[in-house]
Amino acid sequence: MSTLSVSNLEDTLKAHIPADKLREVKGVLFGGDAPCMDIPDDVADEARQGGFEVKGYKLGNTLTEQLREPRVVRVGAVQNSIVLPTNAPLDAQYKAICDKLEKIADTAAKMNVNILALQEAWTGPFFFCTREKMPWCELAECPETGPSFHLMSKIAKKHNMVIVSSILERDLQHNGVIWNTAVVIGNNGNYIGKHRKNHIPRVGDFNEATYYSEGDTGHPVFETAFGKIAINICYGRHHPLNWHMFGANGAEIVFNPSATVGALSEPMWAVEARNAAIANSYYTVAINRVGTEVFPNAFTSGDGKPAHADFGHFYGSSYIAAPDASRTPSLSRDKDGLLVVEMDLNLCRQIKDKWMLSITGRPQLYADALSRYAKHDFVPQVISDPSLAKAKL
To answer: How far is 383 from 332, CA to CA, in rounded Å?
Structure first.
């Protein structure tokens, strides 16, 4: 793990801000001080033995309604590091990660988690920076019959939980092409469906276009036993319209399984998923892997700097945000962790009624404008100051 001087931002604030002022600071930064959930002794013991942290909160100021019962669910978000070096046999690397996650899932079950979500491409290291095809493409698998589905299906059925599993997909119906895919597994262990990553980065060492293309599954929302969920995979969080369309299709919780490094994106991290929750009146679950992964062969970033063997530090910091602008504290920047949040999905409609963003959003205005923009002969709507033309004479 990285030796960061600040392991957790919220803990640092607590250590240096007087208690009488900390509550107001949290109100400004996080929309309030989310109540902590009790962590049972056996859960705390398991976490210590497994080398991961467990944090639990109750999120969102949901009002009691007269005609609807509360729709309370518990969501678990997992951030984790790889276990073995990247030059270890591939099957050993995969098994070690599976063993770690199975233990964390068992702990999540003791916290009564209903929906458990894993980080992007959890089945191996985030190897896309290397641009090497072997052995990494061997991790690609069928989302309905592959080894990760069988494992997660077993866990889902055992614990009566829905699981969001982000993998590398091998599309057996189309000549074995590869996709970055999130698989939704029902609480009976059944396959519900999948979503392929809509936006592929072309920045830094995120050389994902070397392996797969932009997804072709649109913006599906999966109706599960515990609510309507969607998955905005990693880089898609930089695209507001991507978030918007999941909301337009009725999502109540949107997961953002990610793998991103501090030098590139950490200043954006705390803003994007929270802003999406506010703008679209749903809950968001931002999950980032953690740790530094070193590869056998050095690679360059195309920026004139020396070759290097690691992508940078994945800073974790997973958190969950509510549509009322509140959010949880983050998990650590340098440790494995399980974040458990209790939420009432009734808050989504309550906030829609309060802020009326769906009504005031005027989608037809933007649909027309974007339709014009997408055409090759688009003319920008720019009105120039006439005096500028005179000044050029």
So the answer is: 49
Residues with catalytic function = 120, 197, 234
Could you give the 3-state DSSP secondary structure of residue 320? strand
pLDDT digits (tens, 9 = 90+) for 172-206: 999 999 999 999 999 999 999 999 999 999 998 99
Percentages (nearest 5) of helix, strand, coil residues in the chain: 35, 25, 40
Q: What is the DSSP string of 119-137?
A: -TTTTS--GGGG---TTGG
- The structure tokens 């802003």 sit at 275
**Measured distance CA(214)–CA(384) in Å, rounded:** 37
Tokens matching residue 339: 């974040």
The candidate with the shortest Cα–Cα distance to 233, out of 166, 144, 137, is 166
Cis geometry, peptide bond prior to residue 125 (ω within 30 degrees of 0): no
Helical segments of the chain, H only: 9-16, 19-30, 41-50, 90-110, 147-159, 240-248, 262-280, 346-355, 357-360, 363-373, 386-392
Residues 6+ apart with CB under 8 A from 72: 342, 343, 344, 345
Q: Provide the edge-to-edge strand list for the sheet that holds 319-321.
A: 222-224, 227-231, 253-258, 283-288, 319-321
- Paired with 239 in beta bridges are none
0.90 exceeded by the pTM? yes
Instruction: Indicate the pairing of strand 336-344 with strand 290-299.
Output: unpaired
Residue 171 CA: distances (Å) to CA of 67, 231, 235: 45, 19, 21
Arithmetic mean of pLDDT, 348-357: 97
**Which of these, 80, 127, 73, lies nearest to 102 by C-alpha position?**
80
39: DSSP letter: -
356 C-beta neighbours (distance < 10 Å), count:
11
Region of 65 (left: φ > 0; alpha: ψ -120 to 50; beta: rest) is beta
Beta bridge partners of 166: 182
Query: Which of the four pLDDT bands, split at 50, 70 and 90, describes residue 1?
Result: very low
